[in-house]
Amino acid sequence: MMWAASRYTEAKLESICSELFGDIDKDTVDFVDNYDNSMKEPTLLPVSFPSVLVNANTGIAVGMASSICSFNLEEVCNTAIELIKDPDFDVSEIIKAPDFIGGGQIIYNREEMDSVIQNGRGSIKVRAKYKYDKSNNCIDVFEIPPTTTAEAIIDKIIEKFKAGSLKEISDVRDETDKNGLKITIDLKRGIDPDKLMLKLYKQTPMEDTFSCNFNVLSAGMPQVLGVKNLLLEWIAFRTECVRRRTFYELQKCRDKLHLLQGLQKILLDIDKAISIIRNTEEEKEVVTNLMIGFGIDEIQAEYVAEIKLRHLNREYIIKHTKDIESLVETIKDLEEILAKGQRVKKIIISELQAVVKKFGKPRRSEIIYQADIDEGEAEEPVSNEPVHIFVSREGYFKKITPLSLRMSGEQKVKEGDEIIATYDTTNDVELLFFTNKNQVYKAKADDFEFTKASALGDYVPSKLDMEPEETVVYMALLKEYSGNMLFFFENGKVAKVDMSAYATKTNRKKLIKAYCDKSPLVSALYLQQDAELVLISSAGRHLLFNTAVIASKTTKDTQGVAVLTLKKGQRLMTVRMYVEGEFAKPYRYRTKNLPSTGALLSAEDSGEQMTLI
User: Fold this and answer.
1) 15-43 pLDDT tens trace
2) Are residues 99 and 225 in the same domain?
3) Catalytic residue check, 441
4) Which of 398, 394, 388 is nearest to 458 (CA)?
5) Distance CA 335, CA 503 (A)
6) Do 90 and 221 have their domain in common?
7) Backbone angles phi, psi at 463, to 5 degrees
8) What is d(CA 44, CA 51) in angstroms, rounded to the nearest whole number?
9) Are residues 42 and 81 in the same domain?
10) What is the pLDDT of residues 537-550, one digit of tens each?
11) Residue 140's domain is classified under what CATH number?
12) What is the largest CA-CA distance in the chain?
């Protein structure tokens, strides 16, 4: 069998790779057997700078994953130097944000960035960089987020163009060449390129999120470490490498000094050495006779015996023995390095400074702040055309135009699924999706594509990037944050939350603690005005009450007030709107005053199982 050609087995390395493999032959790291025990391989590389933070690494293993973004080499090395001097140094003073090799613009979010730097977890929003070519009326995109590709961006633009949501574009193509990446977007006349790019950021991967999970192996154990802890781990590792290298060099110098000291003794009488070798009858006795004749040990005698005949002259021996003095000084210096930890720190710092001087480059990724983005970045108005919205029990969402609905047949759903809510509304309404994990996800009807009755629609948990096993329990439609959300719990309590509690100044898509988690949620309801509702318990008792008697709260996860008093083992089962005149029989009114706590009357009348409040 022939071996593979060199073009498959060889690779040209950048000059910086010398910093990865330097001193690997000086016992700086441990070696283990390779896969077939035919040779040894290093467990780690004795890299002279924190490469784990400079090279982006993403991988998935059994039961765990790792995603480490890249940082600027100069910033990382300078931060490591400061940490060597002071372990309590604040790394965020130098490292503000990652630095991706593909550039792009990092949208700085202080909270998320602190989480990444301190804890090793978080997400970083990156958007593409572009310039407008006025002469050709086109946009040239030359830097994109690290999580996407030019092909993916172009495919998404084409998809949106066919769907009719990017009518401002006449053509898009990939013009990447030896000069670098370039996506060219031709515009129609009169189109504002900046406004179009804001739209592309929203609808395509030109703005994407890099999720960080700094999961690394430390001492053989997986750990999620922040930037500071990763640098401290590297400093400890590099300190051990420098110590091992120093000890290796010390041993080599001692061995060489030992041999030269034996050679120096030969200098006293070269003729005697030649005579001993010449007059020794058996070869194996040469070393022993030299040891006796000059008072040297076996190693020194072996070294002298192996010298070539042409080198047995005074010049050769004097030349080599001159190194003895410098070796003594070198040994003394190496011993001092091992004895003093500060010397080791200075060596590491000098090596880092050399790396910065030789390989340091300016940042590629530009940092922009949210305040700068918000200026003049008003969203384009969304059309208010009428739409029909359908939501299924399993979380499928359909948005259909009236014309398409008239031409369609029966609504298609998955086997075992059913349509549970239908809305006649407009395309500009806000949607609030409350989930089983006490969270709410905010979206707009415009965020969803138009579809047909014959399609399943969008699966909401996937569309909104919900957590695993998170499902929608209620969807509220609103045009402005007025009215109230009502939450009904199994323990008989009802929480009334003002919708202003869900309004945010920033464009946040997810809010935690959307409602109380002290008791299982039975039902949720959005009301713009107070109304009469019917509550039904597991014992079959009914309670009719008006929501106006409950005070509205601005705390989203308020526990609410006790509306239905339940006996042990009972729970609230159903909530529905009251239908005028549905109870033909008159009922007894409970007339006592409400308690100061706001608890309402219980459905425990004898005879009839209905209480009117």
Assistant:
1) 888 898 888 989 899 999 988 888 899 98
2) yes
3) no
4) 398
5) 67
6) yes
7) -60, -40
8) 12
9) yes
10) 998 888 888 999 99
11) 3.30.1360.40
12) 137
